[in-house]
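Exam revision sheet. Question 4 asks you to relate a sequence to its structure. Input first:
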Amino acid sequence: MGKLVYGDSGTEIEFDDRVLTHLQIVIGAKLRRRESFFFSWKDDPAVGDGRSSIWLDSSVPLYFRYNSNKVPALNREWITVMTASANSGAGLTFIEEPGDHSTPLPKSSA
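Answer key, structure tokens:
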């Protein structure tokens, strides 16, 4: 499991490395254009089974930490779907990879 570390808050959100790679591409594209947005996900039952959101802005430092040194193959359809979500009024909402129902839910800690 990789981690997305949000700003200086100490908040760490765990994602599978494959998921994190795709999120980095979508989030990076938005932030390069200086577009701020919410990023939301459903929490893993181990951390309360609720949902979480963070505000992403180019002024907030993000750190993507991968467990593996291998870069996974990219799923362009997944990137397209998540980019459309990120461009919506609701912001980027984590979705499972199309055709894959084994993606673990993210775990966050402050």
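Marking note for examiners. The chain is about 25% helix and 30% strand.
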